[in-house]
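Methods — Computational structure assignment.
A single polypeptide chain was analysed. Its primary sequence is given first, followed by the predicted tertiary structure written as structure tokens.
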Amino acid sequence: MWGRKEEPEVSEVLDQRRPSNVEAMAQQHRKNVSNKGLTGASALTVRQSIFPIILVTTLFFLWGFAYGLLDVLNAKFQTSLNITAAKAGGLQGAYFGAYLVGPPTYSGWLVRRFGYRWTFITGLCIYGVGALMFWPSAVYRSFGGFCGSLFIVGSGLSTLETSANPFIATCGPPRLSEFRLELSQSFQAIGSVMAPLLASRVFFTSADPNDLSKVQWTYLGIAAFVFCLAVVFFFSPIPEVTDADMALQAEQCSNLTGYQDKPLHKQYKLFFGVAAQFCYVGAQVGVASQFIKYAVESANISEAAASDRYAIGQGLFALGRFAAAGAMMFMKPRYILMVFMTMIMIFIAAAMGVYGNAGIAMLSLVLFFESAIFPTIFTLSIRGLGRHTKRGSSWIVASVCGGALFPALTGLVADNKSYHVSMCVPLVGFLVAFAFPIFLNTYYAKELDGFRETKIGYADADGTIGDVAHDERRLSAIGEKETYLKEVEV
């Protein structure tokens, strides 16, 4: 795709002067950076990476808030605009369809050509424009206008994800990659909890069920906040981690992982990860988009009450993210992925046959175990990509477009059967995604475990392991020892 020429060759990387991680932190305000050049960021320590990770984590909160609003808007528009569940699935189609366009093309090219900072700023600006477009869409009560607005919002968020996910995964010691992304995306889950709680007290409180004015003001506030955040990112110190840095890091870990540089078309783990992520995200969005209507059908409660139940489910989702992040400190991520996917399969099947509050509980437990899946598939899929890390990451983000297909299919089954029966559509998606951890644990255990065992980014007596200054001190110490031994022999 776009930006292929921006990827370095391994020979180019190894022939370059290696900057230190201190230099990487000192040059954070550069306007852009060559993706083929080393910056020294391949050996960032935990302390050096804390501030930029906290800053980028705010983007995950924004993404979660927008996603949480999307599911409530789905139910609101079915009532206010008198449309079917299948047609309301067009909202998800517009939002997630943007992921098919942006990451493989312009946003993937941006992150390779200009680096993370300018991709963050561009994504925030696109997101802000999309949020502003909700105002005229609400004034004219145009479902097509809402879909167009959500497509622009999705374009902005897909651009942010194309940069935020690989940035969090690569900014810091490689052994903590899964932990960092899981923890950062926990705040995305918090945004998803807050959105339906706000919506149940804003969108569903008007005496007139057809009133959409509060939707206008909500998105106007979001737009103002997003544009302010873009200014913050312009002035903030953000280290650039290039594909050259990742190629160097992969070579440094090769004794533990068995890494060998391969062309992109031979990265089979990446391709399976893309397919698994496509089906998983589609299934996740299919469940979320119909959760409120499922709860109404199952327990015969109001939409406002069902929205609160959905907020509880999203709370479990957030709790699951934090729990998974904690578990990754002492348990291998490939095992966590396997356990969580297994539990999803059990509870989604149970949700199809159980009614009442018990049915809502089953579906809420599905949300709990969904929590770890996206970030874990992402990080495990890009492990060992080396110089292809940014392009591979953009493909994984593009696979989020699965969320455009499954909700419409789920809604179609719900219109013709019931919301309980419609859960068979997400069940199929989860089944495909379930094959990925089986594949990883069977064929890629050594490689994945090797990256988890590396000490790059940690300190020893000679400095930060993996950093050029560390290697120079060690070589100097070896040279001094050899000189001493020769003198003793003489």
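Note: The mean pLDDT is 85.
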